[in-house]
Amino acid sequence: MALTLEEIVAKRKDRWESLRDIEYDRRLTRAAVKEILQNKELRDIVTRKPYLLIEVAFSVVDKEKHTVPFFLNEVQRDFLAELEQRGTDKPYFILKGRQQGFTTLITAIQLACSVVQKNFSGFTIAHRRDSTKAIFNDRARVVYQRLPDQLKPHEKYNSADELFFDRLNSSWRVETASEDVARGMTLNFVHLSEAAFYSCDFSLLQASVGEAAAAGAAVIYETTANGFNHAKELWDSGACHTLFYGWWRTAEYRRQDAPPAEAVDGWLAERLRLLAERGLDEAQRNWYAHKYASYLDKSLIRQEYPCTPEEAFLSGGECIFDKEAIQSWLLRLEQKPKGRTGYFTYKKTGREIRNSAGETVDVEWSLTDIAFVEDKNGYITLHEEPRIKKNGEGQTVALAPYTLGGDTAGSGTDYFTGKVVCSLDRKTAATLRKQRMDEDLYAEQMYCLGKYYHDALIGIETNYSRQPTRLLASVYRYPHLYLRERLDRLCETVEQVPGFETTAKTKPVIIGELVAEMREDVTLECDRETLKEMTVFVKKDNGRMEAVQGMHDDLVMALAIAHFIGTQQRRTWIPADTGEKDFITRNFSEDGDSDAFITW
Prior knowledge:
single chain; 21 helices; 23% strand
């Protein structure tokens, strides 16, 4: 009875673990390949999924320069599972630490495809010429030369940067990144290695590759981070399946010996505590500490061996917020629930307002039957439910006060945002974030959010549009809006108008207050997207405080407004209407007249 591919791989692993004999392994792989070629069912499987040959017959040179069987590590196996599950409907972006084996894996996948499939055209783009040579020689040619002869198709040529098999009309080649790379080709598989380090115009390179990639082609960006550049923009764009692989998922990154005590500074001590909380064992933490100690520029470890995607991409400029504290808090938040996500539904009804002649002069709208509907694709996250205080009988006697800051989308790339903050302890309770939204619908969702959180005080920025604030004030008659003072130059009087206006005077104030509060207690904010925005919120050379180029700060602005307008909101519990007066009226008064007691 023929063995399955899984059984063949298991036998190879078992023999390697017991013998550690590469010559025996070569004989075993030759026999395995012969068995596969003679079995039509197995041949069909590897033709459809050539990468299954990797663990059957491929060998590599490991980090100690020893030739060993190519058995997939954890992250390599995880990526193949993602590729099988998601397919090639859009590109993949792999963000990783150093030397986790992705270039070796992706090269092996292309090599496997080229030796078993007809008309396959694979292509790897490297960031430097020396890397181009290294990928071809160390990760392709050496692997190909060690394949059993039965797997090697007839070669038309085997050049310095290309393997071409004429009878299969299949090929794989590698080139250095340039603006017109791959122009004129038709490709089934494209690997962009260390894409964050390309020095050419990335948009022109993408255009060239995009034209070359055939329908259904696999396109894989794979890189360590290199600051806030084209790679960061691509990661945030939503155009790719984004996959982050933490360094600790690589089994070799372990050491038994602890680092010298003098090498453990305050930052590293805190980081090691966080890694312990994540469940990393002592050997993994020791390895990280030794790697940190080896760097002259200690900040590089956050880019080369990041613990989160946000940590990998380092911002330029002077970050306004305490980025280290935020990164540590982001790590802890990964272990905490994210809250309920969805949106509000409601009934919208209008009541005509008529003049003395019976003519309709206006319509008074009201939103009733407000309910939160959970939807994983929703744009509102409730981090905590509205707080209430109850007495011993379970009756609600007090409500927590809240503020709600909002920022409208200034352009097509910005977001409509809202941040609910509890006035008792200044912690975020809810977040709204949606990129494309009609202003009236935004106003209605903000109305519902405010009502849900006990008639929260609402203040929305009016710089780009006054429409949401106007709707809340005049159309829906929301009962609790932030009022700012405005000088009426015609009448030379000061009037109070709803909405928050961000100016050169007010912005430094609200941002400064938020920075101080976050420095005092970073756990005030629990929304990951808001915290990510804080890590890219910088003070630029011209003095402007805003997100770095290509990033967003809409949530930060909404949060700063929510914190600032708290001056018009109480900081103590709001006594709840227990219904006692209504109970007395219904039971002890005939008409509810205030003089009922005297009449009686």
